[in-house]
């Protein structure tokens, strides 16, 4: 495997561009600090005010803890206190002291379930906090790893199962592409922080099933929904096409995200001498090409549509900010891996779009959703709760494909 050095005139190497990325990252962090409330971190509205009615949310607390751990590793003042607050929340009011694992919020409903998606982010947050050397992080990580291994990882299926009731009964007869994708992300981080290559084998097994088998058979857009036997459910949520986490159809943004993760996985395995199948890099390129062809400007306006049907026609044409964050990160990763100038051109085009349409210079952060005319909208993602996607997009282009984010930053800072 060869990772290429970007050309001298690439944006990825230009000092002014890297300075711009750093400024954008710090601007996002400053906006996100307002999400801190007593029991963790809350959603933020469009002006950066915490949505107190919902209280502290575990998904936001985990993502904020992870993001501020990355900032801590960069030497951004004030970040360590945010990480420590997140650790305390995840060890306290957000944790299920009776059954183990984590509630969805500090005020859990009796019907809420324990989701693999959420627990993957708790593990990611804990691993990043360990890399940052924060107190209490190692205990949180041990707890998160135990829950993942005890309840969510299925050795027989070589994948993560989806959800349970609060007492770990009633396993859901559904398998999710989204949760397993973020499971791969968590596995990459755990392999580095725990120094355990089994997580890379887990990540490879998931990727082979979801991408090399299923996505390769459907024009290289990931299949999102499966039954308990890993048979695709093409009509799943047909009546709820704009669902935040389980939308009907296929999601071009996830093709970008998977493309990047496959390259990180390939680089991570190569770095410690593990064998790699050739399809990791090949499928990453196919995923990126399909997402650009099927998702970008397909309705005559710039931007990436949220979902398409099985004939690759737009279903939900709103533009969500996270899809652009993943697109720009995938373009950077593919350019580093292949040296193909077309990926660098896409990298520039995606950042130009972000700068023109998504960055909110009046109230801060990025607009999380735009309509088909690229005007701010709130039908799917109200407010601006998400730091994680945009902030990572400012970091990933500046780092190697392996090790994973927190470990790479720790090594730069001398902590790793």
Automatic annotation (TrEMBL):
UniProt keyword terms in alphabetical order: Isomerase
Gene3D superfamilies: 1.50.10.10
UniProt keyword annotation of Isomerase present: yes
Domain of life, per lineage: Bacteria
Entry keyword Isomerase: yes
Pfam families: GlcNAc_2-epim (PF07221)
SUPFAM superfamilies per record: Six-hairpin glycosidases (SSF48208)
Family designation: Belongs to the N-acylglucosamine 2-epimerase family.
Family annotation (PANTHER family): N-ACYLGLUCOSAMINE-2-EPIMERASE (PTHR15108)
Protein name per the record: AGE family epimerase/isomerase
